[in-house]
Amino acid sequence: MIRVGSGFDVHAFGPGDHVMLGGLRVPHEAGVIAHSDGDVLLHALTDAVLGAGGLGDIGQHFPDSDPRWRGAASGQFLRHAVSLLKQDGYQVINADLTLLCEAPRLATHRAAIRESIATLLGVPVDAVNLKATTTEKMGFLGRREGIAAAAVVLIERR
Ligand code: MG
């Protein structure tokens, strides 16, 4: 049995000098406004994992009204979602992620972020693909007001 899930997340830029992407700190002219560490890649991916498992969404599992998740490292959200899948007998086959922003540029961080995500998911690095695109300077992403990510995950129960 295989199942697919998708996820999408957005955070506005705010005060700060870095953004968290896939569990790694990436220097940037701004930070993000978020209850947790605001890692859009991991939030989109967590939603994709939960979606594949039919397990709702990240807000249901980790409400931003809960002080426990203030400043939380988003890797723990993803690890929890993967553990819920495992309880149901599923494993992640692969994940494909897209980062949408004008900046920061992903190029020099891409390999390290793929490895970080693969470790969090418990899969080989070649099971994680990471893409980046701009929105051709259009809209809130084009105006550098924020950063977004989309993710798709395939899971299997043998
Ligand atoms: Mg988020």
Question: Would you mind describing this structure in some detail?
Answer:
With 158 residues, the chain is α+β, with helices and mostly antiparallel strands. It has one domain: 2-C-methyl-D-erythritol 2,4-cyclodiphosphate synthase (60s Ribosomal Protein L30, Chain: A, 2-Layer Sandwich), CATH 3.30.1330. Helix content is 29%, strand content 32%. It contains 5 helices and 7 strands. The strands form 2 sheets. The protein has a 5-stranded mixed β-sheet. Strand 5, helix 4 and strand 6 form a beta-alpha-beta unit. Helix 1 runs parallel beside helix 3. The termini are close together. The relative contact order is 0.26. The mean pLDDT is 96. Bound molecules: magnesium ion. The site of magnesium ion has 3 residues, from strand 1. Magnesium ion binds next to strand 1.
Summarize the structure.
This protein is of the alpha+beta class and 158 residues long.
Keywords:
158 residues, alpha+beta, 60s Ribosomal Protein L30, Chain: A, five-stranded mixed sheet, two-stranded antiparallel ribbon, 5 helices, 32% strand, globular, binds magnesium ion
- Count of separate structural domains: 1
Biggest β-sheet description: 5 strands, mixed
The oligomeric state is single chain
| Spatial arrangement of strands, main beta sheet | 4-1-7-5-6
Quantity of strands, as a count: 7
The unique ligands bound to this protein are: magnesium ion
N/C terminus separation: 7 Å
Work out the helix count: 5
Mean pLDDT, nearest integer? 96
CATH topology value: 60s Ribosomal Protein L30, Chain: A
Radius of gyration: 15 Å
Which CATH class applies here? Answer: Alpha Beta
